[in-house]
Design brief:
Shape: elongated
Radius of gyration: 30 Å
Number of strands: 17
Structural class: alpha+beta
Helix content: 25-40%
Distance between the termini: 65 Å
Strand content: 15-25%
Largest sheet: 10 strands, mixed
Amino acid sequence: MSSGRYEMVVGLEVHVQLKTRTKAFCGCSTDFGAPPNANVCPVCLALPGALPVLNEHAVELAVRAALGLGCRIDPISVFARKNYFYPDLPKGYQISQFDQPLATGGSVFVGQSEKGAELRIGITRLHMEEDAGKSIHDRYPGETAIDLNRAGVPLIEIVSEPDIRTSAGAGAYLRTLKQILQYLDVSDVSMEEGSLRVDANISVRPPGQAKLGTKTEVKNMNSFSAVEKALDSEFARQCALLDSGGMVEQQTLLWDGARETVRPSRTKEGSHDYRYFPEPDLRPLMLDSKWVDHMRKDLPELPAARKTRLATEYGLSVVEVEQLTADPALAEYFEEVARAAGDGKAAYNWVMGEVQVALRTSSEEIGRFRVRPADLAQLIKLVRDGTISHTAAKRVFAQMVATGKPAAQVAADEGLAQVGDEGAIATWVDEVLNEHPGEAARYLAGEKKLQGVLVGFVMKKSKGRADPKRVNQLLSSRGG
């Protein structure tokens, strides 16, 4: 973003909770929503003599994330103590990584410029660390409560290069990053549960100037839209400060969503303030290159590649593939339906239509949806083969959702097999013309646009069983 006199320069620090059953350095559960201080042990509480043991699965997920983002995995990384005092950090330090992180480099593709060039946000580093606990300020009036369930939960921190120039660009980066992490299945990436948190470093400078301005760090943003609003607010504040002859002070700011403004929290620390030194209770993390290569080959198909393939294989538009790939589970469901039905367009229409409506109504996840992909594919085939009409198919689908029965069984049980018999259809047509004399007279007099209305009446009378092609043919013959 530019105000004319200044441009925005943003780098983001994204903290991602890894999807492990236990914490980074002990066997305590990482389950969200447990009673306060239920998932703690001597290691979490930093009791004398308690020693950390690194969670192997956390390392696997961290490496998987780094590879999926195109990072270079360092064969040797070192855990360090980051020393600072907070009430929710029992040890008085956080186990993190400093000058020898797990991975460096990488980038995230966020779109194309107006000239067709790729827009990529570089990644400076990705390192492992543990989370702190949580301070609760609204439970007891005038007091702060401490919940240490989150203390020791494994995180990765993904630090971007200062390549972002607009708040919208920051939002695009975050949404793309979240989607990639979902496809890699390394995290729940839920901002509501705190498994994805964002800190934004922002500075301003005159356009064309290479030197960066003094940055501030904005915290306490609980949605991507909040990140965008916070960046716009802080950009405006810094521009106004410089225009008035003031200087930007390096500090940490908190976003106040209610007032939609930032407020100071503390002076921003530098790395020297944390007195980093290697964690004496953990050996350097050494990764075998063959193991890393195996992890790289085992990566799933990522969103950008899947979008291209779905568009090519199933003839879908850019908008359609964007909708389908928003959630990896939804994309997988669609593909199973499309492959079994042999019809990508019909599969898209059902998945983004009736399936989505049913999921919203029940608040179900698609992984637990009662209508299995093979059963929906069978329903699509029944419509395509003319066994049931599309109108009847919607009734069949509703019963499939309610009972879990396959489409053919529901159609048989409900007597919804499509009727193509000309005598039966002619009877329904005659009844409709008699029951709607006004529309019938106008239609027979040449008002052809009423044919669709009359077809609808016939389909309703036949409870969706009449073959709509035969209905149209008969009405056309009656209309001369």
